[in-house]
Design a protein that fits this description.
This is Aminomethyltransferase. Its EC number is 2.1.2.10. GO terms for molecular function: aminomethyltransferase activity; methyltransferase activity. The chain is an alpha+beta fold. The protein has nine helices and 19 strands. The chain has three domains: 140 residues, Gyrase A, domain 2; 81 residues, Aminomethyltransferase beta-barrel domains (Alpha-Beta Plaits, 2-Layer Sandwich), CATH 3.30.70; 86 residues, Elongation Factor Tu (Ef-tu), domain 3 (Beta Barrel). The strands form four sheets. The protein has a six-stranded mixed beta sheet with strand order 10-11-12-9-3-13. Strand 1 and strand 2 form a beta hairpin. Helix 3 crosses helix 8. The longest helix has 18 residues. 42% of the residues are buried.
Length: 419
């Protein structure tokens, strides 16, 4: 008996199940979280060049990564830092707790001030670096690249302190560049000129307040602004309106990354691997091995990793050094291998660029001691340059140089210049 070729109707239930399955697959392919500023950023995103920043949809670039960089250096650049992990730490023992877990002396950090710090595990290996804001005698905000809530809560046992993550509740913006002060003044933030480098203060905004600090990640004149998520869009609009005549432009991470490299600043899990992420033992780094030894205050009370750090110093067990390099030529050497005498591998470049401000080919690299420490001569990098659809291997001489690669007086000028 011949079988019918007629297709049976597919039920609506089956169609719904298929659609749900496809939607679920798309759900995992899509970066799900948007910051409080997302509607404004999406409206400006001409390149549609996104990346995943701690689960948030963040832009590599918005309109042109080259011009976005120059917006930082010649006008005012606005960058959404809301995905940065933020912890509120408060209570009678907040100062003592933070002094115990971080490298720097928190008792010297006065209310209304910010400092750059880092924290280690018990073996002295760096867990992360970040900024600590002292909002009042008993209240702090700790900002970092990675999430550390379980570790912070465990470390808080025995202290009269409350630790809460406020990443979603607090929106953040970085306003950086020579006209950044003028934008804030024109936006009506009275007396903002009184903020010196690493100062912070609260200013009225939209029926509430916005915290403004004279900080940033660009090595330029700049500020960071923190506001409750429900007042984020009004803050964005206020800055954009005030900055029209000052050349304000929103930017993505690629431009910011170039500026931070010129400033010689490092990024966790880019220039060094944090202790919680390191799988191989030789990837762990102590503060002295990534240029953060200056933070260690041996006059303060005990802190995480103190014994291990002192032991490594005394017994010369420090194995690596993070250095700035100037490389001949103009081809960026990102992720290039560093050699001694063109033959022995001694390290790796983690970030590199041709610097428009320094007019030099610059890089940050991690080297195995004694190279980069007591032995700094005859260093080379291996670069593969694409030329007419074929890679050409180039060996370029590298010279260890001081960081930052550029130093702009306007960053610390007091009062800030009115560009």
């Amino acid at each position: 008996m011949a079988q019918s070729t007629r297709k049976k109707p597919v039920s609506k239930t089956v169609n719904a199940a298929v659609s749900a399955r496809i939607a679920a697959q798309d759900h995992f392919r899509t970066l799900r979280l948007g910051t409080p500023f997302q509607p404004r950023i999406d409206a400006l995103a001409k390149t549609q060049d996104w990346y995943n920043w701690a689960g948030y949809r963040a832009p590599h670039s918005l309109w042109d990564e080259e011009l976005e960089y120059f917006a930082i250096r010649s006008q005012a650049a606005l960058f959404d830092i809301s995905p940065m992990t933020k912890y509120r730490i408060e209570g009678p023992d907040a100062e003592a707790f933070l002094d115990r877990v971080t490298l720097r002396d928190v008792t010297k950090l006065k209310p209304g001030r910010v400092h750059y710090t880092a924290w280690c595990d018990d073996e002295g290996f760096v867990l992360d670096d970040g900024t600590l804001f002292r909002l009042s005698p008993t209240r702090f905000r700790l900002c970092s690249q990675e999430r550390h809530l379980p570790w912070l809560l465990d470390s808080a046992i025995g202290f009269d302190v409350t630790v809460e993550e406020e990443t979603e509740a607090v929106a953040g913006l970085a306003l950086q560049g020579p006209t950044s002060f003028a934008v804030l003044r024109d936006a009506g933030f009275a007396s903002v000129e009184r903020l010196k480098i690493f100062d912070l203060a609260d200013f009225p905004h939209d029926g509430g307040t916005v915290g403004i600090s004279r900080t940033g990640f660009t090595g330029d004149l700049g500020y960071e602004l923190f506001v409750s998520a429900d007042r984020a869009l009004s803050l964005w609009d206020r800055l954009m309106a005030a900055g029209q005549l000052r050349g304000i432009r929103a930017i993505g991470y690629t431009a910011l990354n170039r500026a931070r490299l010129e400033a010689g600043l490092i990024v966790a899990n880019a220039d060094f691997t944090t202790a919680e992420h390191a799988i191989r033992a030789d990837r762990l780094r102590m503060p002295d091995e990534i240029g953060l030894g200056f933070m260690i205050d041996l006059e303060k009370s005990h802190f995480n990793g103190r014994r291990a750090i002192l032991d490594a110093r005394a017994k010369r067990k420090l194995r690596h050094v993070l250095v700035g390099l100037e490389i001949e030529g103009n081809i960026p050497a990102e992720h290039a291998i560093v050699y001694h005498k063109k033959s022995q591998e001694v390290g790796l470049v983690s970030a590199a660029m041709w610097s428009p401000m320094a007019k030099r080919n610059i890089a940050i690299a991690s080297l195995a001691r004694p190279y980069g420490d007591t032995m700094v001569d005859d260093l080379w990098v291996e670069i593969y340059a694409m030329r007419e659809l074929q890679y050409q291997k180039l060996m370029k001489r590298a010279k260890v140089v001081a960081r930052p690669f550029i130093k702009l007086d306007r960053r610390t000028a007091n009062p800030p210049a009115d560009f």
